[in-house]
Structures are given as structure tokens and as C-alpha cells.
Amino acid sequence: MAKITLDNLAHSYLPAPKTEDDFALKELNHDWTDGEAYALLGASGCGKSTLLNIISGLLIPSQGRVLFDDKDVTTAPTADRNIAQVFQFPVVYDTMTVRENLAFPLKNRGMDAAEIKRLVQKVGAMIDMESQLDRKARGLTADAKQKISLGRGMVREDVNALLFDEPLTVIDPHMKWELRTQLKKLHSDFGHTMIYVTHDQTEALTFADKVVVMHDGRVVQIGTPQELFERPAHTFVGYFIGSPGMNLFDAEIDGTQAKIAGTTVDLGGAYVAAGKTQIGVRPEFIRLGSNGAGIPATIKRIEDVGRHRIVRLDVAGTEISAIAAEGEAVASDTNCITFAPEGVNVYVNDWRIAASGEGAS
To answer: What CATH number should be reported for the domain holding residue 331?
Structure first.
């Protein structure tokens, strides 16, 4: 296990980058705490795999350093970093049995045969392949081969870090849940530093202690699932986390009030805002009204998704979403919306700002 430090890290695939836009990974400084589970979350092409490959040693960054427990490993080969990495598509030895595939990294380190047998049996059960341990990998399905790859990553108890690059892409949905559960148990049992790359917010939020949200090559927020939901540091986080994502309202902000679609809204705190100003409110914090005492809104449709309903409304030509809890009435004469005060976030040029006295966002 190791603390991983990213010091002034950035990377460009161009030989002579000139502007920030030339960097696939923009400057990053962060300590990844020893023993925590992190998820790198973002859309395809945002820099997640670039960052993971720099940490693993498959890629040397254009600038900055990578340190494991304060030791500079920036140019050290992957083999010298004592990590295990599982890739998106399965990497297995077809001529070996499942057992031999799982034992391979342990045999390479000269581990005692009895200990190898114990660990392989244990991991075979974790990936639900006990009955296939003596079967050749050739001919197995893609999801079975990916479980072997996961098992090879999970079988070592002495690694500095376990790195997963979208490892459940080819796994069927039920098995995804089972394997995420097993990965969390592995983390709980052994306290490995784990970094898990995914574009799936459910995977990220259920797996990680801390989620690292990336957008356009930049880390825009690192936080717990609760922090990402309640206080998105960037409008992308609000949009990307949650289903539906956060509503954004263009607003004119003047101290403790904002004007949205011609209606004045109390912000519950004083703000100093200059630039493109927006109010972000998640659907869970939108309140429906029919007395006209709020921002004018018209219901467009209602979607029943079982445990709640999603109410789609038109506000000044923009579609926004509200959540109506199961059993909550939605009046047919709804004509306005208001915000629950605890759900209001203020953004300037896409970044959240704090109210006076609130402290850092």
C-alpha cells in the first residue's frame, strides 16, 4: 500500500504543446491517501485513462512527478512500482487453466505453494469460478475471461495499489454488482490503495471513498458521493452526477437575491458574482406550486420511474426537471416552482462560489 502523490502533473501527446488546450491532462496536484478507494469518473476522452497510465508507469508525463510514499517513481517502469492493473478488455493466457492464470503473478514472486493454493482458492470463490479453476481459459466467454483478469489483480495482498481501467465493461449487469461488492470487501479486508476508472456514475459512487470527477482533461472535483451531490464544485459535476442531473438557471445575482426568468429569488446568503452567473438546483430540491408565487413554469410531461416521478417543466424556454416522491400529488394546475434553500448553489463561469461567511466551496 502506498500514498500516491501527483506533483505538478500534466501530459500532452503533442511534441511541443503551446497552450493549455494542447494538454490531454491539465495540471494536477494531489495526494491520494494510503489505503483509500478512489474512482476516476468522467466522459470518454476526459483524461481518466491517461492519468491512470501515468500512475501505473505505462506513460511518462510531459511535466511533473509521481511519488509513491514520497519516493519519485515518475520514470520507473511498471514492474518496479509493485502495482496490479486490470484493463478494460481481458488479458489472460488461453493455454493456462483458470487456476494457473490466477497463480501466475504469485509464482513470479516465488511465493510458497501452499499460500498460492490458498489465495487462488479464495479469489476463485470471490469471482464465482471455483468450479472452473481447472478449465483452460481458451473457449471461455469474454466476461469469464475478464473475471480472471480481475482475479489476477485481486490475488496479490502485497501491492502498493490496485488500478482498474473500466474493468466491468464486458461483465453482465448482475455480475457487475457482485464484483463491485467483492472489490469493496477486498478493500475493507486488506486496505489496498485502489483507483477505479469508469464513466458509470453508479459504479463510481458505489465503489469509492472519494470520487475524482474529470472533465476536458481537468480534475474538477474530488469528494465523497455526498459532497458531489450536495455541493458540486463545477456545473459539469452537477450535470454528470445524478439522474436527472442538476438544473442550471441563468441568473442575475445581486447580493442575497437572484433574478431568474424575471422573478426574484432569495439566495439565503450574500454573493459577489461577476461573469456568467447561474443557479444550480438538483431536481430533488425543486418545489412545485400552483399559486403563482415562484418562477413561472409549465409542466411538459411526467415520467413514472417506479420509486418516484420525474416532472419535466418549461421555464423560460428551457426544460428543467423536478422529482416528485412516490405518492406525492402533482397538481394539474402547477404554474410555478420554488427552491428548497439547502439545495441552491451559485456558479460563476461554471465554478461554484461560496456565500459570504460560508468558507471555501
So the answer is: 2.40.50.140
